[in-house]
């Protein structure tokens, strides 16, 4: 019988995509320099006026990764200021997020399938058990924002593809 691992279903997945986003940020910065594009044109780009800009997509992807690691690990979610304004700042946020999720002991995440998890506050409060939270809330939101960040750069001419997004595992 195969056992299910909440750790394996979460932390390595977040790490894979966050590392890919970090590598894509390097390509975006080089692309802006090569094409003489103001980096803010990419950093503040939105696919549609009512969508969040590229920088915010990266911030939120990081927030879902660290939030999931913390909640599944039974820890308080660390708060990060949303003050990134450059590609280097975004890479630093990803690195900080990777360091945090690596710091959550695997043993604290294992067995969190039934852990009670609450997100939000007031009218936006949501209650989950760990497995439902991971598969139906945290991962979909994480992938949405990571994919939107990728799509913004691809839309703006960055020569990246699926392999860049998926990265190595």
Structure commentary:
InterPro entries: DinB/YfiT-like, DUF1993. This is DUF1993 family protein. Pfam families: DUF1993 (PF09351). This protein is mainly alpha-helical and 169 residues long. The chain is 59% helix and 5% strand. It has helices at residues 11-34, 39-43, 54-72, 87-103, 106-109, 130-155, 162-166, and strands at residues 116-119, 126-129. A two-stranded antiparallel ribbon has the order 1-2. β1 (116-119) and β2 (126-129) form a beta hairpin. It starts with 10 loop residues before the first helix and ends with a helix.
Strand order of the largest sheet: 1-2
Coarse structural class:
mainly alpha
Helix coverage percent: 55-70%
H/I helix tally? 7
* Succession of helices and strands: HHHHHEEHH
Can you tell me the overall shape? globular
| DSSP, total strands | 2
Main β-sheet, in a few words?
Answer: 2 strands, antiparallel
**Contiguous runs where pLDDT drops below 50 for at least 5 residues:** none
Distance separating the two termini:
24 Å
The Cα radius of gyration reads: 17 Å
Average the pLDDT over all residues and give the rounded result: 96
Strand content: under 5%
Pfam family, one: DUF1993
InterPro entries: DinB/YfiT-like (IPR034660), DUF1993 (IPR018531)
Protein name: DUF1993 family protein
């Amino acid at each position: 019988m195969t056992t299910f691992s909440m750790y394996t279903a979460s932390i390595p997945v977040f790490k894979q995509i966050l590392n890919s986003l970090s590598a894509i940020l390097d390509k975006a910065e080089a692309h802006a320099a090569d094409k003489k594009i103001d980096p803010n044109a990419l950093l503040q780009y939105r696919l549609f006026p009512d969508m969040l800009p590229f920088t915010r997509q990266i911030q939120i992807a990081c927030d879902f990764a660290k939030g999931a690691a913390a909640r599944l690990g039974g820890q308080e979610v660390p708060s990060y200021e949303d003050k990134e304004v450059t590609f280097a700042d975004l890479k630093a946020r990803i690195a900080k997020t990777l360091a945090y999720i690596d710091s959550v002991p695997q043993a604290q995440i294992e067995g969190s399938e039934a852990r009670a998890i609450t997100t939000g506050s007031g009218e936006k409060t949501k209650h989950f058990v760990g497995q439902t939270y991971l598969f139906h809330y945290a991962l979909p939101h994480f992938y949405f924002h990571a994919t939107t960040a990728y799509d913004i750069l691809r839309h703006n001419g960055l020569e990246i593809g699926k392999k860049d997004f998926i990265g190595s595992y």
